[in-house]
Task: inverse folding
């Protein structure tokens, strides 16, 4: 899927807002960059073991 096709629904949320084409292009580029970053973080998260610790409630009712 092309970046423009993927961003079309997101940019549609700006319908009625008066923005120049250059500004819309900048927003689309920023969205694409954020999507790239999220994909990289997803890959990192899948490849990195995360330490987890089970937490108990601070106070326990009998």
Result:
């Amino acid at each position: 899927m092309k970046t423009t096709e993927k961003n079309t629904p997101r940019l549609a949320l700006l319908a009625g807002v008066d923005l120049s084409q250059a500004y819309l292009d900048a927003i689309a580029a920023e969205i694409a960059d954020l999507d790239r970053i999220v994909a990289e973080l997803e890959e990192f998260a899948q490849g990195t073991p995360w330490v987890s610790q089970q937490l108990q409630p601070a106070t326990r009712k009998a």
